[in-house]
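Subject: for your reference before the review

Hello V.,

The reviewers asked for a structural picture of the protein, and I figured it would be easier to keep everything in one thread rather than splitting it across files. Below is the amino acid sequence we used in the manuscript, unchanged from the supplementary table.
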Amino acid sequence: MSRRAAIVAVAASAGAGVALTLSGMAVRPAAAQSDTRLTRACRWVEAEEVGLARAEPVDGRDPAPIAFQTPWLVNAVAPIWSSKERAGAIIEVSFSTDGATWSDPVAITEDGDSGRADRDNRRHGQLVLTDPVRWIRYRTFNADGGAASLRGLAWEYIDANSGAGAAAIDGSGDASPRDFTRADWGADESLRYQSGWEYWPPEYAPVTHVILHHSESANHRDGMIAVRAIYYWHAVTRGWGDIGYNAVVDHLGNVYEGRAGGEGVIGGHTQGYNAGTWGILALASANGASPAPAGVRGIARAAAGVARWLDPMGEAPLDDIPALPVICSHQDVSPEACPGEGFAALLPELRRQVAEVIERNAAPEMLSFIPGDPVATTTEGVSLREGPGLAFRAKTTLSAAEPLVVAGGPETSDGLTWYEVRGASMVGWTAADYLVAISTPGQVDYAVGGMTGPIPDGPDAEGIVARPATRFGTGATVEVVEADLNLRTAPGGEVVATLPVGSWLVITGAPEAHDGGAWFPVDAGDGREGWVSGEYLKPVE
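And here is what came back from the structure prediction:
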C-alpha cells in the first residue's frame, strides 16, 4: 500500500472520540467576521496565522499537526490551496469542541469534478459537514503521501446553525418526511445577486436523467442546516451564484429544494453533464456506506418528481454516452468515486422505488390549484375545516358542485393535500381530493349525455365530468396544442406573437389567475417571452 493510500485508510478507520491534547501543535485563534444572516463564514489563512513556509519531516518524523480555534461554532469546513501545487494532495482534518478531545480524522482530497467553473483558479477540497465545533486540526500531504505544506492553504469555515433546523420547523411533531422549499430552509436569495444582477441566471433543458451524489459527511446531519452551508459554499466561496444540486435529501427522507428556478433548471453538480440532468445530493455517511432506508425513500420521492415522464428502469443517451441509466450515479459519468459503493449497490432498489412512486402518483403536480382558481366540490357533505387537517374542527359541510375560489395552500397533513377555499359567505380548508377545476367563478361546467351547462344541485350532479386544471412547474417544457395561440404581454394583455400548434415553450415562473383560468409566463425562444393560457398547453412527453 502506498503512503498516500495509507493516509486515506487511517483517516477513514480511526477510532471515535480519541483523546488528544494540543501539546506540540501550532495553535492560533481565527479572526472573527461579523454577520447577522442565518449563515456566516470566514477564512483562516495559514501563511497569515502561522507563517509556515514549508512543513517537512524532522529527524524522520512528520511535523506536528496545526490547530486553530474559530470565533464561533461552525458546522462546515473546507480547505483551499494554490493550483500551482501538483494534483493529488491530501489533507487530514479532525474537529473538537474543546481543543482536547478530537473527532475521527477525515481525509480530504480535491473536489476534482466541480459542477461549475470556480471564481478563482485555485484547488478546492471537499466540503466537510460536522457537528458544531470550535477547533480544527489538520496535517497536509503531497501527492506522494509525504508530509508537506500546501502553498496558499486556507480554510473556509461556515456557521449555518443560527436558523431553524429540520426538526424544529414543524411544530406539529409529525415526523413524516417533508419537502422543504428554499424559503423553508432559509435560503438567503441576496447571495445569488451581484450589484443587482443575478450572477447565475436560470437556463433550462428537458430532464432525461437523474444523477445521484453523496456528501462528504462522516455522520448524519440536520439537513436544513447542512443545505444552508452547502449553498454558501457553492454560491459565495466558489463563486457559482447558487447551490449546484437540484435537490438535497437527508437521512430522514426530507427533500430540500436546491438550485433556484424550478423543474428543468440546469444545475451545477456534474461538470459536462449538467444540461438535461437532475442532480440529487444525499446527506449520508461517506466512505461507501449505504444510506438509511428512509433516506432512500426520500431520494426516490425526489427523483420521481422529475422522472415521472421517463422510464426509471430504462436507459437513454446523454451527450457522448449512448446508453446511460435514467437513474444513475455520479461515478457512472465521471471517474470520481462519488457516491460510493454502498450507494451504487442500492441503485437497482432505488430505480424500483422511483417506478413505484410514479405509478402510485400517476398525475402528480398536474392537478394542483393556485390561489384564484375557481373550483367546485365533487361530492355531497364535504367538510369545510378551520385548518388544513383532520384535527381541525369542521365549520360546516358543503353541497355537491359548490362553487368556490382557492384562497391558499397547498398544505399536506394526514396523507391529504389541503387548500383554503372561499365561498359566497364562508372560508375554510378542504381536501384536494374533493375539488375539481371549473372554467368560470360561480359556475361549474359539466358534460352529460352530450349536453353542457351549470351543474345542478343534488343527485342530478352525479356523472359530471369536470375539466381538470392543468399546472406546470417553473422550468417545465410544454407544447402548444391549438394553432395560433396568442403570446401576450401579460395575462389577457396585448398580443405580441402567435404560436403554431406543436411549438415548444419553457415555463419561466409561477402562474397567475385571470378570467377564470391560469396563465403562465413562458420563453418561446428567439428572444420571445410573454404569457399564454394554460388551457392550450400540454407537457412534452
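For the response letter, the relevant points are probably these. Helices lie at 3-13, 46-49, 166-169, 182-185, 223-237, 293-307, 341-345, 347-360. The two ends are 51 Å apart (CA to CA).

Happy to draft the paragraph if you're swamped.

O.
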